[in-house]
């Protein structure tokens, strides 16, 4: 299912139900770049901490443009058991503002990454104009808390700058005249955002006055204290709804985390770091702290690249651990018990490097590795968990995995 801003609400409801029922999840992301310079690329000589710092720098420099999540559920029909796959391809674009509050952040773009996406038919217009907004969880709560405090406080918070001091004096005089009059509404013209903020700041110390934004002016109106309390409560609710709308795709990641299902990826450390950094909170300063944070976020991770690299028979048989190379070979040798959910098959693009399809291929690769037969894996679930759980591929001076 290709998901944009237009069909996100319906897709979120489907995803929430499916992730609660599935057996495991496969994850993949498309990004605007990987590493800023050669100096910041991973090296086999890296220590665990050095690798984390390099990847942390990359995650903080570049953005996420697609998130692929494929849900696999063991199903039995007509006496035949198989995994039913439901792939979601989420096109995401960060929110730039929330209810008039700017959250306009920036991210870098690697030219080679954009050329790569273009060669694989990536639709940049759809990404920008139809991308699902997202706002990181901690940022959303900070903005919500700050605006609530601003709306409910009766204290002045602004001192007019030199250019607007006369405007403030003139408005306070007009406001005093309005309060003393029998008029119920005052419309005061404004020419810029700063003037409007000044008016809001001056009016809010009065508990029997309220404000409404109008084109080219601010409307100030009178009411009882009870009426104004209801008016402010309505504004708080409106802004909170704007925050929820701006959070957008973050709700998908929160439901994924809450489900606590095993999450499968291919060379997935960077994906996990992006998922935490873009949708939960800032990455912790050290790898040890990140280990503790990810334990509550996605507690069961399985990396198919680590499985292949750490299983000599499989690596020798196929000579590669790259997903786009080994996935079709495994499909040839072991079609495996996998079928698309009937409501999802028609929406599958079958394009590698589209996040939704790559997530499907990652999950399918995991299933096929388990069903490869001679030279494959021991299929006993407890052994699979013991050998591969939370060991993410990262070739460093300390081994070929980072153990979470």
UniProtKB/TrEMBL annotation:
Q: Name one GO molecular function term.
A: 3'-5'-RNA exonuclease activity
One protein family per Pfam = CAF1
Report which superkingdom the organism of origin falls in.
Eukaryota
Q: List where the protein spans the membrane.
A: none
Q: Matching InterPro entries, A to Z?
A: CAF1_poly(A)_ribonucleases (IPR051181), RNase_CAF1 (IPR006941), RNaseH-like_sf (IPR012337), RNaseH_sf (IPR036397)
What family is reported? Belongs to the CAF1 family.
Protein name, entry field: Uncharacterized protein
- From which organism does this entry originate? Coemansia brasiliensis
């Amino acid at each position: 299912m290709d998901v944009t801003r237009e069909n996100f609400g319906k897709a979120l409801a489907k995803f929430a139900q499916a992730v609660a029922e599935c057996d495991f999840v496969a994850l993949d992301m498309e990004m605007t770049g990987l590493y800023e310079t050669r100096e910041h690329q991973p090296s086999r000589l890296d220590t665990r901490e050095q690798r984390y710092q390099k990847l942390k720098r990359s995650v903080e420099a570049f953005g996420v443009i697609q998130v692929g999540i494929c849900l696999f559920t063991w199903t039995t029909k007509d006496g035949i058991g198989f995994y039913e796959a439901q792939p979601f391809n989420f096109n995401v674009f960060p929110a730039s503002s929330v209810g008039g509050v700017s959250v306009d952040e920036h991210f870098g773009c690697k030219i080679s990454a954009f050329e790569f996406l273009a060669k694989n038919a990536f639709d940049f217009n759809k990404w920008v104009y139809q991308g699902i907004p997202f706002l990181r969880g901690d940022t959303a709560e900070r903005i919500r808390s700050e605006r609530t405090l601003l709306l409910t406080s009766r204290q002045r918070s602004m001192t007019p700058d030199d250019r607007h001091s006369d405007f403030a004096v003139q408005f306070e005089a007009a406001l005093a005249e309005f309060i003393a009059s029998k008029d119920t509404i005052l419309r005061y013209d404004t020419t810029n955002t700063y003037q409007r903020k000044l008016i809001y700041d001056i009016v809010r110390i009065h508990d029997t006055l309220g404000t409404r934004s109008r084109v080219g002016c601010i409307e100030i109106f009178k009411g009882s204290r009870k009426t104004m309390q209801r008016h402010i409560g309505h504004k708080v609710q409106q802004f909170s709804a704007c925050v929820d709308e701006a959070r957008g795709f973050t709700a998908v990641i929160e439901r994924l985390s809450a489900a606590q299902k095993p999450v499968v990826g291919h060379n997935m450390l960077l994906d996990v770091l992006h998922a935490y950094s873009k949708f939960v909170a800032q990455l912790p300063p050290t790898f040890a702290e990140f280990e503790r944070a990810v334990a509550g976020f996605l507690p069961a991770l399985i990396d198919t690249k680590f499985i292949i690299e750490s299983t000599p028979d499989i690596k020798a048989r196929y000579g590669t651990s790259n997903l786009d190379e080994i996935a079709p070979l495994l499909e040839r040798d072991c079609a495996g018990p996998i079928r698309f959910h009937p409501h999802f098959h028609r929406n599958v693009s079958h394009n590698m490097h589209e996040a939704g399809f790559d997530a499907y291929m990652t999950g399918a690769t995991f299933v096929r590795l388990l069903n490869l037969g001679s030279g494959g894996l021991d299929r006993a679930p407890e052994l699979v968990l013991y050998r591969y759980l939370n060991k993410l591929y990262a070739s460093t001076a300390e081994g070929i995995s980072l153990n979470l």
